[in-house]
Write a structure and sequence with these properties.
- With about 325 residues, this protein is of the alpha+beta class.
- It has a domain of about 190 residues: ApbE-like domains (T-fold, Roll), CATH 3.10.520.10.
- Helices cover about 35% and strands about 25% of the residues.
- α2 packs antiparallel against α7, α4 runs parallel beside α8 and α7 runs antiparallel to α8.
- The longest helix is centred in the first third of the chain and has 17 residues.
- Bound molecules: adenosine monophosphate and magnesium ion.
Length: about 325
Amino acid sequence: MRKPFFVIVISVCLVLSLGLGLFGCKQAPKEKTFFAMNTLMTVSLYGDSALLDECGRLLASLDRTLSATDPTSEVYRLNHGGTSEDEHVKELLDKSLALSRLTEGAFDPTVYPVVRAWGFTTGDYRIPAQDELTAALSKVGYERIAWKEGSISLPQGVEIDFGGIAKGYAGDLVKRYLLDKGLTSGLLNLGGNVVAIGAKPDGTPYRIAVKDPVGEGYMCILPVVDKSVVTSGLYERYFEKDGVKYGHIVDPSTGYPVDNGFLSVTVVGEDGAKCDALSTALFVMGPQKACEFAKSNALSVVMATEDCLYVSSDLSSSIAWKGEQNKRVVTL
Ligand code: AMP
Ligand code: MG
């Protein structure tokens, strides 16, 4: 089910009302909401309001560059046999390939033909026939991209999709721009990918709400200074057929939407693009492997299944769960 617009509005408002309502300072932030990358993006800052419009322009321009479906985008050109010299595309591809290697292909930007076969790129959802899926899977494989420097091109048949990392990267870009302009405090909410720039003006941490993956409202609040909080959730985009839910995160090794018990995975860290790719990758790995990976890579995470909440030890003392948890809380 593609998220109806009002659901997006409500989710974004929820994070904002919690994020901003808990700013807890007298000075009101300046704020503007944009629509880019198929979602609402809100920039709230303590500083010159003229910066807000420039943030909107940056987001719109990045969206035009990275869209896999816009025939005028750099990514579209790459996916259709062309080349690209674009700095953002180069940086993102570089990061994506490093994270594909780190996660042994759980995150893989070349999974696009499979994502498309399920209709997640257009919203015309469908269960592809096995031979169609096999054909789409035969095009998947980040190892095939040998690009190191200079202009990028993709091997025949390979197509990329930065949907699993682009919002995190966009947050990093806007943050970098605002810091260059001397901003010291602000909050970005790019469709649920939240970036805290510095601390609140009174010096206390921003308090970021993580959405409840099944119900309305939030699951927990994380106090954060100068970090991104990125969540991958089954609730974000899915369709249902014969009582089975098919979500938009697919396992590049099978071609099927992941169905491993995870409801949401949140990663906290300084590098928003990395957090974004890792939240997608951990979701693909499933609870057991994701817990091991998070521990061995010292990741800050909050991961939810039907009956368990996994939280990394660094976050466990500061996390505030909403009300009584009827799930088992496991500290990693
Ligand atoms: P996110 O919400 O960040 O977890 O990203 C999900 C989006 O990333 C999907 O809508 C797809 O466009 C894309 N995607 C799905 N599965 C994968 C995967 N295994 N690796 C990389 N990107 C993916
Ligand atoms: Mg992601």
